Fold this sequence. Notes:
Blueprint: H1 18-26, H2 35-47, H3 52-58, H4 60-72
Amino acid sequence: MSDLKTPAVDTTDTPVDNTKIAQQEEKPKPCCVCKPEKEERDKCLLFNTDDSDSSLSSCEEYIQKYKACMKGYGFEV
């Protein structure tokens, strides 16, 4: 029988950053956070559809609250 040797794997070239892995596991999904803010924003945009520009300006407060909430969880909207 032939003597096959398995090459040694050098793990020193690929360090594992456990903090990044932990942060990724702890980060919630975007659909699961800021639900009240999202609901207020969506209601405003849905029911103020007279003119697209005016509905955006009248809903700006809700849009900014939602963006601030999402940013708090690390999401860029």
